[in-house]
Amino acid sequence: MKLESNHHSVFLMHYHLVLVVKYRRKVFDDEISARAREIFEYIAPKYGITVEEWNHDQDHVHILFRAQPKTELSKFINAYKSASSRLLKQEYPRIRQKPWKEYFWSRSFCLLTTRGAPIEVIRRYIESQGRK
């Protein structure tokens, strides 16, 4: 286990985030998921976040990421949801055909700390998402 550090602290903070599409609409495929990840990875460094693992099912995404102690997670999540909603609907018009007004993501989200669980266990769980 390799710890991270900054000028004032040493840390290792992993989180498991689950974001669900509004009304559980089935919109994710590999292409849309890959673009959603690109958007996440573009915004993440501004908040001190690094993606470790990403996977999707048809109506939600699972993200394993590292953060820093100063990271404001709720601000990051809201910024990501806002930007990705706008860009995904703009770049993939077929998404707009799903009747849920201007919303893409559900207002709620699930954010879990890894609580000392081996990261490889969580990584395997996320990798298995979307498989029957």
Automatic annotation (TrEMBL):
GO molecular function, one term: DNA binding
Top-level taxon in the UniProt lineage: Bacteria
Name of this protein: Transposase IS200-family protein
Lineage: Bacteria, Bacillati, Actinomycetota, Actinomycetes, Bifidobacteriales
Database matches in PANTHER family: TRANSPOSASE FOR INSERTION SEQUENCE ELEMENT IS200, TRANSPOSASE IS200-LIKE PROTEIN
GO biological process: DNA transposition
Domain Transposase IS200-like intervals: 10-129
Pfam families (UniProt xref): Y1_Tnp
